[in-house]
Each structure stands twice: as structure tokens, then as C-alpha cells.
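Figure 3 (text version): C-alpha cells given as input.
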């Protein structure tokens, strides 16, 4: 219930201005967001690399209806990739991109504009020798995002996609994308989805995650296991052994600010661990999804709002 309220608030402009102007919000934002500037994203990547961790960097923003903002987001990614290269960090970091941040919802030919912007970002990634992963948004965009993936992979075969285990369709999508050369990030899913398309019971989502993970780990692609769930992390190790996969033929992924001790523990064991690092000033939707995931985060937030 609280999860649904928070997820619908994540798309409310009224709640957005309330939360953005609350003086206490900033410390909570800093727990999950690297900072507002390109410099902050590079600094955090450097810090992660020093701990043997990799990064996937997200320039925050989504659902834009402003062509100038979509272009600015594209340019921010291109600048970021150049800075990572200059700092010798391109081998440690890739970028994660939401198509809704680079124009998918612009009137007229939004999908085509987003695809063009995505191509520019892929070209910059190619120049510095790293990769791009397309984030997955709500279920209404899944088909279009997978279509964009197919288009991009024709020129940039290393472009990765995200699949969400809460969607009923995802086991089939995993089968389609489990082949050699594909990179798939499997997560549980962070949006408020109807029961007609998604499992709404957490145990059902977890069971579907396990089914999907088995498909990806048995396939020829590169699975990116995006979860903080200790049971799934343990199972991944067992599936790697069963499928004779060495560390580096798959990776774990976690969010910046969530279970950092587990991130370094796995890396110390020789596993490849990538941290999803968001930066920028458009943090509202991202923060609300993180609050929705964990009631303890929400309690902390409400206490701060009440000044306690
Ligand atoms: P859960 O069952 O939610 O959590 C398991 C345990 O992890 C919890 O008990 C808790 O200890 C810890 N935990 C989880 N979340 C938090 C938190 N916010 N704060 C503190 N502790 C926490 N979703 C999408 O829909 N599209 C995407 O493109 C996408 N990309 C992602 C990329 C990465 C690298 C990761 C890690 C997640 C991504 N997500 C995405 C979010 C994902 O779908 C889940 O909402 C989120 O990861 C929480 O699910 P979980 O697997 O950790 O399991």
C-alpha cells in the first residue's frame, strides 16, 4: 500500500515540489545520489574503482516533454563519457540511459528522437571503449525499449537491456535475449504495475526472478544480476558453478548507497560488482522509487521531515 502511494507520488508534480523544497531531503538524496555535477559522478567512480568496483552511471531525469532537456541529457552523457576517458576510468564505468530522459515522450517522432540521441551516446561510448545499458521503465514502454535495443545492437552489439522479473512476460524475454553477445541486467522492477501484466506478490516476483536468472545463467550472454537480495546473490554463485561460469562472465549489480558492505565483500571474493551511480539534479523520481523499496528508508525520511 505504502509502496503504491510512493510510486504514484513519484509522478506527481505537487508532491515533487513539496519534497524538493523540504530542507531535510538533501541528506537523504546524498545517500543514494553521487551529486549534481559530472565531477561528482567521476569522483564517485574513482572511489569505487579504488575499491575494485565498477560503475554504471545514470544522468538523472525521466519523462521529459522538453526537446531542449532531451538534447541536454544526451550532451551530458557525451561529456561524462569524455571525462571518464580523460580520467582513465572508461574501463571501470559504463552508462545507463532512460529513453524517456532523451525524448521518447516528445510529441510527434519522440521514439525516433530518443533513438538518435541514444546513438550519439553509444558513439561516445564506443570512442572511449565502454558500453551503454538501456534502463527499463514502466511496462507500457517494454516493447518499444526492446525494439530500440535491437536497432542499436545492429551498430553497437554491446548495448545492454534491463528486464524486470515482476513482469509476467519476462521469462520469455530472457529466453529471447539469452544468446551469445547479449548483455541483460535482471532486476525485480521498480514501477507500480497492474496485476494484469505483473506479479504483485513479492514471493511471486522472487520466484520469477529465479526462473529468469536460471535462463540467463544457462545461456551464452552476459547476465548482470541486479539485486541486493541475499538469497538471490547466493543462488547466483550456485548457478555460476553449475553452468561453469567464471567470475567476469557475469556480474553483480547494486545501487549506490545500498548494501555497500556486500558490494565490497563480493568484489574481495573476486566477483565483478558494478554499482549503479545516479547523478544530476533531477533526482525526485529516483529517490521516491528507492523510498518505496524499503519502509525503513521511508520512516527515516518522515522523521527527518518532522524535524526529529
Ligand atoms: P528487494 O526484495 O527489494 O530487497 C532485498 C533487500 O535489499 C532488502 O531486504 C534490503 O535489505 C535491501 N534493499 C533493497 N532496496 C533497498 C533500498 N532502496 N534501500 C536500502 N536497502 C534496500 N528497476 C527498474 O524497474 N528498471 C531498471 O532499469 C532498474 N535498474 C536497476 C539497476 C540496478 C543496478 C539495480 C540494483 C536495480 C535496478 N532497478 C531497476 C531497481 C530494481 O528493480 C529494484 O527495485 C531494486 O533493486 C530493489 O530490489 P532488490 O532486488 O534489491 O530486492
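Below: residues designed for each position.
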Amino acid at each position: 500500500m505504502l509502496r503504491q502511494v510512493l510510486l504514484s507520488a513519484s509522478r506527481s508534480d505537487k508532491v515533487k515540489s513539496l519534497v524538493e523544497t523540504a530542507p531535510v531531503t538533501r541528506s537523504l538524496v546524498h545517500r543514494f545520489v553521487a551529486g549534481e555535477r559530472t565531477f561528482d559522478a567521476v569522483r564517485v567512480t574513482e572511489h569505487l574503482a579504488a575499491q575494485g568496483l565498477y560503475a554504471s552511471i545514470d544522468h538523472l531525469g525521466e519523462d521529459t516533454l522538453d526537446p531542449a532537456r532531451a538534447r541536454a541529457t544526451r550532451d551530458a552523457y557525451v561529456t561524462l563519457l569524455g571525462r571518464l576517458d580523460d580520467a582513465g576510468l572508461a574501463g571501470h564505468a559504463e552508462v545507463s540511459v532512460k529513453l524517456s530522459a532523451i525524448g521518447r515522450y516528445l510529441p510527434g517522432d519522440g521514439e525516433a528522437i530518443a533513438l538518435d540521441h541514444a546513438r550519439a551516446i553509444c558513439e561516445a561510448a564506443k570512442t572511449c571503449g565502454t558500453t551503454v545499458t538501456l534502463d527499463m521503465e514502466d511496462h507500457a514502454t517494454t516493447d518499444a525499449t526492446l525494439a530500440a535495443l535491437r536497432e542499436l545492437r545492429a551498430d553497437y552489439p554491446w548495448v545492454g537491456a534491463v528486464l524486470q522479473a515482476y513482469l509476467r512476460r519476462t521469462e520469455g524475454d530472457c529466453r529471447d535475449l539469452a544468446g551469445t553477445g547479449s548483455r541483460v541486467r535482471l532486476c525485480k522492477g521498480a514501477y507500480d504495475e497492474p496485476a494484469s501484466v505483473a506479479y504483485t506478490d513479492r514471493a511471486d516476483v522472487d520466484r520469477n526472478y529465479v526462473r529468469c536468472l536460471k535462463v540467463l545463467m544457462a545461456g551464452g550472454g552476459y547476465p548482470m544480476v541486479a539485486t541486493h537480495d541475499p538469497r538471490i546473490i547466493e543462488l547466483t554463485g550456485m548457478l555460476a558453478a553449475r553452468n561453469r561460469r567464471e567470475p567476469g562472465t557475469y556480474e553483480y549489480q547494486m545501487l549506490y548507497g545500498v548494501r555497500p558492505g556486500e558490494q565490497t565483500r563480493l568484489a574481495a571474493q573476486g566477483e565483478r560488482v558494478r554499482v549503479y551511480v545516479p547523478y544530476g539534479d533531477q533526482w525526485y523520481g529516483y529517490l521516491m522509487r528507492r523510498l518505496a523499496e524499503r519502509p525503513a528508508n521511508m520512516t527515516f525520511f518522515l522523521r527527518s521531515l518532522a524535524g526529529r
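Residues 1-33+283-308 form one domain.
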